[in-house]
Design goal:
By secondary structure, the protein is α+β, with helices and mostly antiparallel strands. Among the domains are: about 220 residues, Kinesin motor domain (Kinesin, 3-Layer(aba) Sandwich); about 170 residues, Myosin VI head, motor domain, U50 subdomain (Four Helix Bundle (Hemerythrin (Met), subunit A), Up-down Bundle), CATH 1.20.120.720; about 150 residues, Methane Monooxygenase Hydroxylase, Chain G, domain 1, CATH 1.20.58; about 45 residues, no CATH class; about 150 residues; about 190 residues, Up-down Bundle (Methane Monooxygenase Hydroxylase, Chain G, domain 1). Helices cover about 60% and strands about 10% of the residues. The chain is built from 50 helices and 26 strands. Strands 6-7-21-8-17-11-12 form a seven-stranded mixed β-sheet, with helices on both faces. Helix 36 links the parallel strand 25 and strand 26. It is extended and about 140 Å long. One of its GO terms (molecular function) is calmodulin binding. Keywords: Actin-binding, ATP-binding, Calmodulin-binding, Coiled coil, Motor protein, Myosin, Nucleotide-binding, Repeat. Belongs to the TRAFAC class myosin-kinesin ATPase superfamily. Myosin family. Plant myosin class XI subfamily.
Amino acid sequence: MGSQAHVVVGSLVWAEDPDEAWIDGEVVEISGDEITVNGSSGKLVTAKLSSIYAKDPEAPTCGVDDMTRLAYLHEPGVLQNLRSRYQTNQIYTYTGNILIAVNPFRRLPHLYDNHMMQQYKGAAFGDLSPHPFAVADAAYRLMIKDAKSQAILVSGESGAGKTESTKRLMQYLAFMGGRAGAEVRTVEQKVLESNPVLEAFGNAKTVRNNNSSRFGKFVEIQFDNSGKISGAAVRTYLLEKSRVCQISDPERNYHCFYMLCAAPPEDIERYKLADARTFHYLNQSDCINLDALDDAKEYLDTRRAMDVVGINNEEQDAIFQVVAAILHLGNVEFSDGEENDSSVLRDEKSRFHLNTAAELFMCDANELESSLCKRVIVTRGEKITKNLDPRAAALSRDGLAKTVYSRLFDWLVNRINDSIGQDPNSKFLIGVLDIYGFECFKTNSFEQFCINLTNEKLQQHFNQHVFKMEQEEYTKEEIDWSYIEFIDNQEILDLIEKKPGGIIALLDETCMLPRANHETFAEKLYQNFTKNPHFSKPKLSRSDFTIHHYAGDVIYQTDLFLDKNKDFVVPEHQALLGASNCSFIASLFPPEDTSKPSKFSSIGTRFKQQLQSLLETLSATEPHYIRCIKPNNLLKPAIFENKNVIQQLRCGGVLEAIRISCAGFPTRRAFDEFIDRFGVLAPEVLGGSYDEITATKKLLDKVQLKGYQIGLTKVFLRAGQMAELDAMRNEVLGRSASKIQRKVRTHQARKNFILVRSSAVHLQAICRGTNARRSYENMRREAASLTIQTYIRRHHAIKAYQESLSASITIQAALRGMAARKELLFRQRNKAAVLIQSCFRTHLARSDYIRLKKAAIATQCAWRVRIAKKELRKLKLAAKETGALQAAKNKLEKQVEDLTLRLQLERRMRSDAEEAKSQEIAKLKLAYQEMEKQVKETKELLAKEKVASKIASEKEALVKEVPVVDTALVDKLTAENENLKTVVTSLETKIQETEKKYEDSAKEAKEAESMIAELKNSVLSLREKLSQMEAENQLLRKQALSSPPSRQTSQISTKLLPPLKQSLSTVSNGRPHNEEHQSASPMKQGTSPMKQGTPLKKSTSYLERQPESLEALINCVVQRVGVVPGKPIFAITIYKCLLRWKSFEADKTSVFDRVIQMTSSAFENPDNNDDLAFWLANSSTLAILLQKSLKISTGSGSTPRKRLPPSTSFFGRMTQGFRASSASMSYEGSIVVRPVEAKQTAMLFKQQLQAFVETFYGMVRDNLKKELTSLLSLAIQAPRTAKASIVRGRSVKNSNLDSHWKTLVDNLNDFLEMLQENGVPTLIIRKLLGQTFAFVNVQLFNSLLMRRECCSFSNGEYVKYGLEELEGWCNKLKEEIIGSAWNELKHIKQAVGFLVIFKKFNISYEDLTSDLCPALNVQQLYRICTQYWDDKYNTQSVSPDVLSRMTDETSDDTSSGDFLLDDDNNIPFTWDEISTSMEDKEFSQIIIPNEILEIPALQFLQDSA
């Protein structure tokens, strides 16, 4: 593995560092065996040559998925690969078939959803990114394929994520073996929900983990022959019973004790508990409470979990009663008794706890005390009672506590298994083992000894499996591996468990000695294993010993080995608790067979037996391994501690597996990768036309490498050979670099010379020009100076003259102003004096006026006051009289208003009564008129029928021509008719008189009401008369039928009887009969009874022939008679038939059921795409027709449509009849879709048909996806031949490697043609293509993210060319067909566009996210950038700054979802949208073919055709 022989100054190496475990850097100095390395962090490290390993400069910055693909498979390379992947949130990594899971200490829900499980379903192991789902899928597939049970071993130290990995495995196995319904979810949930219960009673705080499992768990998922989950079971191993009685600081006892002490007050009082610090079994450590753990809440959660698992409340109370009894039992202390070697309870406190424990155990306190302080020895003929000293009594107490707790834990496990349910007939199972890893603390006692023994046994099993995998790999590649040695740890296992002579055997032997202690045990170890290479005695220690495990040396302290190893149930304890009054406690101690003598039993021996049973179970299965790693002890994300991880890799056996691989051929490279990397060592190989195997052999022969092996697909190199090849490659590249540098320096020197020469010539030209310009400037300045002087002199002269002129003008102005100001001052003073005099005189006059004015006002005020007082007295008297008048006025006004309101109310009531009476009178008039008409018609019908019956009875031969006449009956009816007329006229006169009287007074209105009552009575009497007439009519019919009438007469009477009954019933109900009944009257149509029966016969024939027509229609559809490509003929035919039969307006019909039954028959053959397309086209077209035409009926199902009021005249009724017939004829014969008021059955039929269309659409879409899935898996990755041609410089377009994409395009084209031939609506085709392209985008893009080999430059070119082929096909289609389907490929287009870009290193984060790949989120970009590798030009991915920016964005976005795309399987259209997409004229263009019209039962369609 090392590369010491090839280390030179400048080499990149890994050096061991005490702080960082390993540090990478460059060799700066070599002095003998010591090497100085300048680390990449700037730190100088000096190390021995033996601890130096070569570093791969071409290793991917983000690591590799499988560490067997590392160029240098050694400890620092493995560590760096894990660190690189952890920093990019890739927490899973393969080492061959082993999965390494690094705990991220954060939620990553997108890695475990159903979509991710769907990706791994059926995928070959290693094709996708590392994941627990891949391990579970491989186990499930092997179980189904080989019919052999599987096992998945999940190991790691506390806090490494074993439980979470186990949950994910369970989740995937339930997904794969799930049944329809919630049954499997119940099994999975019960297994997972048993965790809180088992954690409460089996987990405790240790030094490294606050929730450490102190037992091993093996979950068996049982499957039936079909691969479906049939049951499950939980097996537990190696419970740490000694923790119940002995704990060390800062650890804690099992969680359930602390939960119970924090229970609600009623439970505390019931179990007589107190603070946890008061109990001996809990206060041995200062750690009572945990910061992140609420014991009171955990107690309630545990109770709820017990409810879910199936433990009832009584059993829960009994469980915690036992836990409380153990706590009280631990507080029982002993002191020396009166006799020698005897013991008694120390004090009353101990007596209280003993009584409480006995009360909770429901046993006798004295017997409990006796069983703790005494021991009964059974000899051959007698029983001897022996007293126990205080120390022995305390051990007896602790033994009882451990036994009770252990059996309680076993009962919980059994109860959970009973609740989950096991399948005794299960043939296969997949077991998931969750067990603690290798442990090495400052103080290592018996528990660590047992745990490390378990890991030694599992490591041996693991080594055998890894060696077996190596053998299978070598055999598969057909290489020689017979000389490879297997590394085994059997000697360490013999040291521990060999019998006799092993450590466990010596421990049991020491425990049986009466006076033995831990020093005795240590002496025996030193005597027996002094020469054993795996055992040693530490210095300065009298009782410790060291075992050299595979994971490192562990020093064990033997102080408590003997106490913790003793495992026996005292017969007194067994008898006492077996006779407990509590059935639950008694069930924990079932009676034992006392006939057999009891042997000494130790925890170590029983532990070894459980371990052997576990290994036998694992040996019967095919193992799979998951190693969980805790990256830091702070339990925080984004922290990777190298030393901590290295220690776990050693303890987990990962490095041991690497050593096994390095014993053979640790470096394995595919031929194309090997040639691509080392082809520079033999350029002639690249230039020749050799295949890959021949080129590899020639290359290795040229470099004279020995010991390698050539397989079928890979080249296998021994340890260190990769470093030799890299050294040769670096040497060749170094010489090439020197030549390139020499040529570049020559080119640069010549370029500099030419540049300097041209610069000198240019500089000289510039200097000459500068001198010429300078002399010209001097001459120009001299001429300019003369001109300036001239103008300056002129300026000075003009300035002096102007100053003199200005001064003289100023003096003159000042003198004139002085004189003017003196004159002005004199005038102002004169004016001021005059003004003062006038103001003074005004003041004197105003003062006199004001004084006189005040005197006058005072006099006036006094006089006005006197007058006002007189007026006030007068007003007071008047006011009294006015108030009385005002009150009287208000009272009168109020009375007037009341009278006015009463008058208005009375008028309103009279007007309302008048309107009501007038309406009632109008109704009665109409009723009278209708009754009169009905009476006339009835008389006429009866007269005709009587005449016909009478003539028929006399002359049988002339029955058809001679009517029967009953003169007496006719006269009677005529008289009654006259009477009715007189009654009607009298009623009319009375109504008129009543109206006049009502208008005159209220009394006349009352008389009118009485008259109306009389009229109602008369109407009732008329109805009675009509009923009597109907009875007489029936009697006459019976008489006529009793005589031998002819067949024609019976037909006439039969046809006329229903209309007559309906008219009579209508009249009797007081409603006018409708126009259909009026038009059916033979007298009003002026036709004979014979002619009147013709339309009735025709409609009856339609109804009778409807079933025959329906069967003919269904046969045509099933046999597809007269199919026209691209036209949904049968949808139009069915629609027209339904209109002709008026099925939409019927309350009940079987037509819809037959159509639905016929359509549902297509579901019997879901794989026939042509058949599904046919039904999709016709059902969707028929649904569109129904969507356009059917309208919900406004009335109820039994209420007829509202019609115009019937015409009273003969011509009016005839006109309405013609209108109705013409409307029905135009409706039946029209091709244009017309609205129809449909009944509820028709609306239900439309909804069912729409549901069928959506189902057909989903089936067609899913079938297309199935066809494309296999092609897409080939289209995303270029074949190996394509890669080889790309490496050698040939283009993909020139090769015949695009067949997969062409096949994909051909399948799409064939599918589209099939849909168009069947006449599927354009909108549905457009939506189907859109979802199909979205599916293609999801599959290709997800494969790109999940498979690193797809994220290469050459593969990007391959996929880009395929997308161009697909785009060309899309461009040939019409816009209404393709729509926006091409835009659905935006993710894969942008991703492929990024893969084929050169110089990705120069792309900034903003350019990448905004311009190149705007549709991709940061997680997707990050994954593509980290997985990218250039197999053609060997260029780098984006810069580290861009990657770090992406990492920050990903870590900050706590709501980041799945980086994979989801496939949308929803129906993408609505019926409003699809109905508006087709116009009515499209349906009118569809003509029913002659083949259908020629069928006799469907000839009625010719009218509409």
